[in-house]
Write a structure and sequence with these properties.
This protein has seven helices and five strands; from the N terminus they run ααααβααββαββ. With 174 residues, the chain is an alpha+beta fold. The relative contact order is 0.12. The mean pLDDT is 85.
Length: 174
């Protein structure tokens, strides 16, 4: 069966759109994979210097979490349809943003120590949101990596979580 001129044009546009979405997805995922790899590298390096078993356990748990995150990202890359339907795949949960912010700050201790960067945190209590934890953590990781890239040795980074009337405000400032 031959396609009409109009059908051919629509098919070509659909094909070009899919190719563009695939390229954008691969670019985004490549960027997203850099963050957990950097965290793993710094946490493993910190394990060499830590003697307390409780601190070692924290670093090991962080490495395991980042490996799990990378595994999830690779799984997403195998399912390219996620690009077109990301909103459908989001798992909306009741989340404690303070806990997520504290966890994120802990993950970057190794990198900050290595770079001699001081982290200041100001987190309000009772900051709950509905959202997908994975996407929120990805956004926070991007903010932290960008802040670290643009913070000089012995500089400082400030993370804040502010409770507003009907929302929360998250900032990462260097």
């Amino acid at each position: 069966a031959t396609l009409s001129k109009d059908q051919q044009v629509k098919q070509k546009l659909r094909s070009e759109r899919m190719e563009r979405l695939q390229k954008e997805f691969v670019t985004r995922m490549t960027h997203e994979l850099k963050t957990p790899l950097a965290v793993i590298s710094s946490q493993v390096e910190m394990l060499e210097y830590v003697s307390e078993s409780e601190q070692k356990k924290q670093y090991i748990d962080s490495v395991k979490e980042e490996v799990k995150r990378i595994s999830g990202m690779v799984g997403n890359m195998l399912d390219i349809s996620v690009v077109e339907h990301q909103m459908e795949h989001m798992r909306q949960n009741h989340l404690d943003m303070r806990e997520i912010m504290e966890y994120t700050a802990m993950k970057y201790e190794g990198i900050m120590s290595k770079k001699q960067v001081c982290l200041e945190t100001f987190f309000d209590e009772g900051c709950f949101v509905r959202g997908d934890r994975e996407y929120i953590e990805q956004a926070l990781n991007n903010f932290m990596m960008n802040a670290l890239e643009h913070t000089p040795m012995r500089g400082s980074i400030r993370m804040t979580l502010k409770k507003l009337k009907c929302a929360v405000r998250v900032t990462v400032y260097n």
